[in-house]
Amino acid sequence: MTVGTHPESALREAGLRPTRQRLTVLAALGDRSDSVTAQQLHAELRAAGEPVGLTTVYRTLAALSEAGLLDSFEREAELAYRLCGDAHHHHLVCETCNRVEEIDAAEVEAWVEGVARAHGFAVTGHRADIFGVCSACQSG
Amino acid sequence: MTVGTHPESALREAGLRPTRQRLTVLAALGDRSDSVTAQQLHAELRAAGEPVGLTTVYRTLAALSEAGLLDSFEREAELAYRLCGDAHHHHLVCETCNRVEEIDAAEVEAWVEGVARAHGFAVTGHRADIFGVCSACQSG
DNA sequence: GTTGTTGCAAAGAATTTGCAACATA
DNA sequence: TATGTTGCAAATTCTTTGCAACAAC
After folding, report:
1. How many domains does chain B have?
2. Residue A133 burial (CB count, 10 A)
3. Smallest CA–C1' separation from B51: which nucleotide?
4. Is residue B1 one of the residues assigned to a domain?
5. Which pLDDT tens digit goes with each residue over B3-59?
6. Residue A58 shares a structural domain with residue A23
7. Is the CB of A54 under 7 A from strand C?
């Protein structure tokens, strides 16, 4: 089940009440394939006439991320978020349009395990992202 | 040639004057194997009786990073830096002591190229880091 | 009714900028 | 001397918190 199809249930399962603001944020995230920061999203919701407070956007993104409904990663020292599926994955990020493609990375998972074992590390997480310019932006 | 052995030359080659402050910053970075933020480093230099302004620490870290002498990555929405060698590499970061080990990652480079090509991306960069708890911190 | 949520205003923290004094070449 | 660098103070920006009104259960 993806977040997009049953946003209310997804919130409920996360122990979060499905308020207007949270549904608005989820809907906005579902409409886009790029990532956004709290500031960006708040400005856009404002512009679209959706009354949601900045504080609420911050708290909502943090809560949804905590619940595993969002992916978060960092862009110039700001946190950016986007909806994510269930499986663990990695990102291909266009630096021009901020669009994010999820990529499967079985190879990377294997690499992570091997390296960590070799160094005696107990793995708690990893990150593997590729940055570049997507084909559309190269043309434009 | 590593930065550690000839800090002055390294600065000069980067088009930066080897000032006392910059040498102090480089020396401090050379003394440690973990990563630091501008705020941290400034506090430590202060405590050590080295008079370097916070603004200068920010500007110096940014300049050195820009020049490729430092690696930068993000820790809880703050930029952290550390000296880096010449080759491209990846990190194994201990979340307890912040120590960073550089790891070779030929596999990852190959993976990056393959994925990017498949998606029509022009690669500008990538990042692959592993987080965990090092063996020393597991014992302690 | 009880408890979680919202949003304003204020506080806090990180970072950047203006600019005059200073150091390096 | 000419130009790059420093550092203070002030301004900016991002984020969090206190708290009273409000919505969901």
Report:
1. 2
2. 17
3. D7
4. no
5. 555 778 888 888 899 999 999 998 988 887 677 888 888 999 998 888 899 999 989
6. yes
7. yes
Q: In which band, very low, low, confident or very high, does the pLDDT at B1 lie, cut at 50, 70 and 90? A: very low
Give me the residue label for tokens 């991320």: A65
Do B42 and B18 belong to one domain?
yes
Q: Within a domain: residue A135?
A: yes
The pLDDT value recorded for residue A1 is 46
Distance from CA of A135 to the nearest CA of B (A): 5
Which residue, of A43, A62, A82, is where some domain finishes?
Answer: A82
* Sign of the dihedral through C-alpha A101, A103, A109, A115: negative
Tens-place pLDDT, residues A10-40:
889 889 999 999 999 999 988 877 778 888 8
Closest-CA distance, A75 to chain B, in angstroms, reads: 9
What single-letter amino acid sits at B17? R
Instruction: Express as a percent the part of chain A with pLDDT over 90.
Output: 21
CATH code for the domain in which residue A12 is found:
1.10.10.10
Kindly report the number of other CB atoms within 10 A of residue A102's CB atom. Answer: 16
Contact B124/A132, CB-based, under 8 Å?
Answer: yes
Chain-wide mean pLDDT for chain B?
79
> Containing domain of residue A21, as a range?
7-82
Bridge pairing between strands A122-133 and B122-133: antiparallel
Q: Which two tokens stand for residue B1?
A: 């040639």
> Is residue B100 in some structural domain?
yes
